[in-house]
Structures are given as structure tokens and as C-alpha cells.
Design a protein that fits this description.
Layout: H1 2-15, E1 23-26, E2 29-32, E3 34-37, E4 43-51, E5 75-76, E6 100-105, E7 117-123, E8 149-153, H2 158-162, H3 174-189, E9 195-205, H4 207-217, E10 227-231, E11 241-242, H5 246-255, H6 263-270, H7 275-280, H8 313-318, E12 327-332, H9 337-344, H10 347-355, H11 357-366, H12 371-386, H13 396-422, E13 427-432, H14 478-494, E14 517-521, E15 526-529, H15 533-542, E16 550-551
Parallel strand pairs: 2-5, 7-8, 7-9, 9-10, 10-12, 11-16, 12-13, 13-14
Antiparallel strand pairs: 1-2, 3-4, 4-6, 6-8, 14-15
Helix pairs in contact: 9-13, 10-11, 11-12, 13-15
Length: about 550
Amino acid sequence: MMLQLTILVLLGLAQCSKVSDPVACSRLGKYRGSILKNSYDEPIFAFRGIRYAEPPIGELRFQPPVPINKHEEVHDASKDPPACPQPRIGDEPISEDCLFVNVYTTKLPSDNENPKRPVLVIIHSSDFARLSSRSNIVGPDYLMNHEIVLVTFNYRIGALGFLSTGDKEAPGNLGLKDQVAALKWVKENIEAFGGDPDSVTIHGNGSGGSCVNLHLVSPLSKGLFHRAVMASGSVSGAYAFGRSLLKLSKKQAKIVGCPTEPSTALVECLKTISAEKLGESLLKLNPGPNGNVIWKPVIERDFGQEIFLPDHPVKLVLQGKFQKVPMEIGYMSDEFSDRAIKLVQDKEKLQKLNDNWNKEATKLFLCDHNKTRSHAISKDLRSFYFGDSNIDNSTLGPLIEIFNDGLVGYEINRAAKLISEKSEEPVFYYYYSYKGKYSFFNPKEGPSPKGPVLYDDLIYLTPITTLFPKIDKDDPEFDTMEKATKSLVHFAKTGVPARALKDTKTKWEPYNSRSQKYLVINAESELKEKLHSKRFAEWEKHFPLNKFHIVQDYSSC
């Protein structure tokens, strides 16, 4: 009987791996994919639009994700799924029924072997309110030049993913719980696509990097990944963390014509509003002066639900309550220089900043609920970065520095320091300064950044065909793309980036709090020590580790 069962399983695998019409057989059912091409015109078996949770619609709106049931029919996984509700750009489909994963591989299991390749899971950036995992935003082409399985997925964003009233009606963090559900799906099903469930790397950029940071400390994510890349985003810096977004949730309700209290009525009414209307209403919520994130994660109170974030993430790391895995951590050399450049070109905003520095700087960089304290810090920061100078074109350099340090550099540096001190696993710290011919910020006139801005590194990892042409073999940037993907894939396989191998020109050594080594990634990379140590020390002085800023309502940041 056992022999017969084995034969049936092997025959099933053979039927599920036909190259001309790729079909994958998971424990939940069969999926028919499509064939794309990598940079070398070799086939990629693409399975797009696989459900990992029940549609979060009707009574499942504002509820934790519900695992998908097994299905008998062959599921069509040949097209990109719709994005989750958000302000519409172009004609790409949007639907509340959006909880899908996409899997890309170049080798499926056969009747005599399963390649069990390392798995790279990319958490798309979103500012917790936008974008998706569609292949024209997070394309597989470059990474599929290598032997790896790539997974991307959607998760609820905006009000549908992060509504939080601070009570049992809406504790918060649903979008992050979706991410956990997707990682569980990977663990349970990825072997059917040629992946190794015991070799999973999570990667996030911007708010996706913040998500990676949160998965490190979340008890719900334990055991679901084995390596992590935290790029240009962290939750280890100066910002407060809140237990709710009640003011924002009430504002959301008011915009769409719902009662603002009690929270039961607020949530029940929001369930009746169309998902499209909720998505579009993001534009009416008025982000901060810096285009700050509106919807965001919260520290959950215990109402009997599964808790994603039980305490301040910095506190959890200091207590050693996080997953200790090999990590890459870093950011762009000119990450937010575009914001500084746009600011000095806007005379009205610039005048307002000069006239009301303490108040405006608090909004731009600090998000501190203690106004007396934050105004004092703002005053010190102005003196540190600008001295007695007025803020204008002549001080663009220091303005870029305070944008970069306050919004990402300091928190990334602190994350590298804290995690390396509490973990025996290596932390590879980088400072990405390669400026290629493509960028998310290329002004036609006025000053231009000297280095790369936020997300410029993604151009060399995942084709973003909505904005940039694909990098083909004849493109001068092809070698840069191959180096970037090769290093990341090697890290996903071994926990060590290819740039850290002994035979490389500059060996990337792990970071520790004594030597504080980091790799400057450029056309010619260089290993250095103590990145911006004086500048980051200034932020450490104002935001010491013995003070965790937890507020009841997080909405005003």
C-alpha cells in the first residue's frame, strides 16, 4: 500500500511540472501558471494570484485573515491579482478581495527530485497605504537569473489594514497579520513550487523594511523566516509608538459619513462603505508636511486576540525578545534629499520653516507628543546642523543631512547596533551610494542629489516597468544589476552576502558595536567604520534608550 501511495505521489509531481503548461500541486490544490522570461531569455514559471486567505469582505472586513481552504479544481494562477483598495492610478484593477501571493521559480519538483531552493519573500513598500505586489511593480526577471524561489504578496493597507480604535472593535495591525498569514502559507506550501520552507529570507524596503523590523519582534512571526533584509526602513528610531489610531479612525469615519462614536457604531458603519470609497478617501486624510505615513502599526492591547506587537519594538530587542537571524541592514546615501531639494525650492514653505523652526521641525523629523520637549530638541538640532545660518540654498547640504538622519539614518544605525549586540548571528550593515542612470528623483532643473534616493536600489533587484525600462544584457547597468542580485541571492542561500566572500575585492565584514564596520556600496565598494558617528550621537543624546515613547493615540504623528 505504501509503495502504491509513493508511486501516485510521484506521478502527481510529474503531472504538476510540465514545462509547456506549468502546474504546481500544493497541499491546498493545483495551480496553473504562465511562463515569463528572465534576463537571459530563459523560462520563469510564474504563479500569480494564489489565495493565501479567504477574501476579507463582508463580515470578514476588519477581521484577522482566515486561512484558505483546500480546493479541488485547478486554480488559474496565470495573471497578476488586483491591488488592495487605495487611490487609483491608471487602470490597474483594485479589489478588496486582494489577499494573494505570487510565486516565481525556474525549476519545479519532478518525479525524481525537488530542488528545494532558498526562498526570498519580498514585502512590498506601501507607506502602509499604497502599491501592491503586481509584477510591473515587483518584477521577477532579475532575481530569476539565479537559483531561487521568489514570493511576493498583497496585504491590506490603509484603513482596511490598519484601522485601530484601541479597543476590541479594532485592535489594529491587520495588514501585518496578513503578512504573517502569507508567511505561514509559504511555510506550508512553498515546497510544491521547488522552494525550501526551512530557508526563507524576508526582504523589505522603506515601510517594507519597517515591516521586517516588526516581524523580528512579533511573537506571531516566530519560526516563519530564517534570514532578513531591512532596507531603508526601521522602527528603532526617535518615533513614539501608540496603542491606537483613534483620532485618525474617527476622521476616517467622518469623511465617509459614519458616526465617530461609540467605536462599535464606527466600525459597523465602515463595514457598509464600499472598499473603493475607503481607498480613495486616503487623499482626504491630509498627510503631514513631510508626506508622512498616516496609517501605521500600533502596540496592541490584549482583548483575547492574537497579538502581533505586544510592546515597543526597541524595548523588545533590548530584552532579547526577537528572532536572531542573519541580517542585512542599510539605507541610501541621499535617501530623502529629494524632500530637502523640493523644500528649498518652495519659498513659502521655506519661510515658514525659518520663522517657526521648532514647531515645523517637530512635524518634519520628530513626531514627539511632548511639545515642550520636542521644541527643545528641535532648537538643539538646528544649532547642530545649521549653526546660526538661515536655511536656504546655501545650507542645502545640512538640510539633506537632517532629513536623512532624522527620517531613516539614525533609526537604521540604531537597529544595526541593538540587534548586533543582542544576537550572535551576523549583521551586515551597508551604506548604498551608487547613483545609476535611473532614479526615482531626476529633477529637470535645479539641484540634483549626489547619490541614490529612496527605492533606487530596487531598480536593480526587481524590474519596476511602470517607471523604468528593463535592464537588458546590452545595458551598461546590467553588471550592476547582476552584482546586486547575486549578492542578495547568496545571502538568501547562506546568510552571507556574496560581497562578503573572501575572493571579493573588498570583503564585507559583519557589524559590531566596537568597530562599527559598514560597506559603502558603489561601483568600487569600500569597507569603513563608524558611519556618521557625530551626527548619530546627537540623536542618541536626545532619544536615549532608557526612554520608550508609548502614547495612547498615535494619530497626530
